[in-house]
Amino acid sequence: MPTRVRAGAVMSLAGVSAIFIGIVAGCGISGPGATSSLSPTPSPTAPTATGPTNLVEASQAGDLPAGDYYLDLPAYPARIDFAVPAGWWHYYDAGSREDSTVHAILVNSEDTGAANGSAWGLSFTVVDEVRVDPCDPSAGNMDTSVTESAEALAEAFSSWDDFPTTGVEDVTLGGFPGKRVEMTRDESATCQGTLFVTPSGFQFAMELPSSEPIVNQFTFLDVQGSILVIWTTDFPGTTLFEEAGGASPDPQAHVEDQGQLHDILESVVIQPR
């Protein structure tokens, strides 16, 4: 996948990214026209935060202080509140946090030997355009109607032969209903694949592990007539991004992180404006 770089540096997003938020792939990230993945290099862990903090105003260096955070951006259909444990950091895709439409919480995996970050965690985002063919930009984009509901977006994601869904289910998260799509990458795929593009121009691809199960999850929530997307990398193995950064392949590297990932998701509260 393309390289994802820590916010504040030159970006060529890979890293996972994610999310769905992937989410990266994830879930690298970059500016308009470049595919990326979520994953800069984290710094030493920061002290514990004392109260709800606007994520776009959080410290740029190192791990986020453990505590409660929120995102309240014009591009999002609602304010999102959530709790972050120690050992996780913030990634955003655009030149400024306020302009970004992909905000990811990624685990610090320096202990795996990955010098470039993990690209493992979750991201929040919204969809602007959905690709007809993730491996062929010239094929264009799907009709805008696919972004009108969680069900329509789930059906669109289920249409790719090279990136098949392994399951679609009804979900409720933060008090809002939607669809959860689990996806994989078929051996016939010729690329990492750009699934969709966000309003800030981020080309969102999956972030893959080198071991089974090779899956990413996208949760689509119907919120106030819009779709909020949460991407997750809920798999136990090291990501290909970590291995490219020097980590040794380990099918159990993120087993403990999966528990914390679930805790973050369970803490999500969505407050419509």
Concise overview:
Helix content is 10%, strand content 26%.
What report would you give on this structure?
With 273 residues, this protein is mainly β. It has one domain. It is 10% helix and 26% strand. The strands form three sheets. The chain has a seven-stranded antiparallel sheet, sandwiched between helices. A four-stranded mixed sheet has the order 1-2-3-14. The chain has a three-stranded antiparallel sheet with strand order 7-10-11, with no helix packed on it.
Provide key terms for this protein.
four-stranded mixed sheet; 273 residues; 14 strands; single chain; disordered N terminus; 26% strand; 3 helices; seven-stranded antiparallel sheet; 10% helix; mainly beta
Q: How would you sum up the major sheet?
A: 7 strands, antiparallel
What general form does the structure show? globular
**What quaternary form is this?**
single chain
Helical proportion?
A: under 10%
SS element count, helices = 3
Task: Write the SSE topology.
Elements: E1 53-54, E2 67-71, E3 78-84, E4 88-92, E5 103-107, E6 121-125, E7 129-130, H1 150-157, E8 165-173, E9 176-183, E10 196-197, E11 203-204, E12 216-223, E13 226-232, H2 240-244, H3 255-267, E14 269-272
Parallel strand pairs: 1-2
Antiparallel strand pairs: 2-3, 3-14, 4-5, 5-6, 6-13, 7-10, 8-9, 9-12, 10-11, 12-13
